[in-house]
Amino acid sequence: MNNLAKLNPDTPPVETWPEPQALAGPELEREPYPCDALPAGLRAAIDDVASTTQAPFAMCATSALAALSVAAQGHCDVQRNSQLKGPTSLFCLVLAESGERKSTVDKFFTEAILAHQKEQAELMKPDVKKYTAELMAWTAQKNGIQESIKQAAKKAEPTLEDTNRLIEIEAAQPVPPKVPRFIFGDATPEALIYELHKSWPSGGVISSEGGVIFGSHGMSPDSVMRNLANMNILWDGGQIPISRKTSESFTVDGARLTVCVAVQYPVLAQFLEKAGDVARGSGFLARFLVAWPESTQGNRPYIEPSGTLRGLDAYDARITALLNQQLNFDETGNGIEPELLKLSSEAKSDWVKFYNVIELELKPTGSLTTVRDVASKIADNAARVAGLFHLYEHGTQGEIGIDAMQSACNIVMWHLSESRRLLGELAQDPALSMAAKLDDWLIARCNVRGTSRLTLREVLQNGPIRILRKKSTLLPVLDELFDADRAQLVTIDGKKFISINPALLSGGG
Fold this sequence. Notes:
4-stranded parallel beta sheet; 3-stranded mixed beta sheet; Rossmann fold
């Protein structure tokens, strides 16, 4: 029964509270981000952005890795052995509430990419204009020949000469210039695949709105299987043939894609509910490096920004240098053929040890049995991150060293721990999970204000999860807190308050 029905018109808070009960079983402890595992230059840039934005360090680090992936992925693949090779592209997923400053963080790390993209667009304008003129002339010639064939056919005259000319014209269709476009923004999965074919075969979806991937119409039930499969192929650097009835069919082959999106927990939970077992069963979610850092909101007093961000400046210079390197296009001109970056013998030995340790924990009695899908991809992701570290520090020269590999293994192990926390949370009852988040928020807010109660209206307006800002969804979640004797709903002078059990507050409320 909803606790609103239990209230009298004017109900004061109780004087004696029962012992508060736990809402759920023990959660996995959040592990600190392994800052020291980052290469020094990369760490300096992340420190600059984290101190300037006061956003969670792990969010900044994930954004920096994703931007590096966009800039570097087209140049090298990583060869782990004679049969195993794959891209350096990363898929990253950041769990963050609105106001966590993910878009601001992304702007810092993608500034050099967007500047290079704008510069290239300006330089390519003459080529685009030339192509437009050539295409108009070609179209006019083709239409003229087609019309000539129609007229000759009506008169039963020979058309062989015009047919041969039409064949020659078709073969001479102008090829559009490749104008680099590295950041695809809010493209749907279908549009993204087309852009990788038409515009530039190496890019990234960098967005603070995870709905682009997890909530768009491209993820509707009738297309979710196809789009998830295509995203998996892009992560692997594979081939996607696209057949169309009313427009040009094409094949995406040799493209590289980075994904880094932020998503609110309820949006992800709804997506996974809609997708059923497909998202995990297909291996889509397993490919992501997950980050679910603790929010810094409420602990970000104004700080005057530094005049210079030397670490970030050096990062931008390195990203620009990578973008200025020419890509190796394949014979079609639509795909790329990255060089192969090999592991040194020491790095290979370290990677094999890491691989085997993970494999042992996949046994039914192992610590990773509940996240086998994610863990099975983690050694691959370690090789990718090690490749990016090498490209950042040494370019395409030499082999991946043991330092880069050890650092990468530490980084991806942290992301694996985040995936375990996330998937464990998703396995809980959604109402109980949201109740825990609301409980934390209510207690923290009361402690800051030195009070034991908040108005129901304030919770509806400012609650920690957007989906709870409606009575119809908030009240069932509040019931979890009421039933656990962690809070109660009271009416004082006609105004409704949520009162917190004093045992949960600093100083006993």
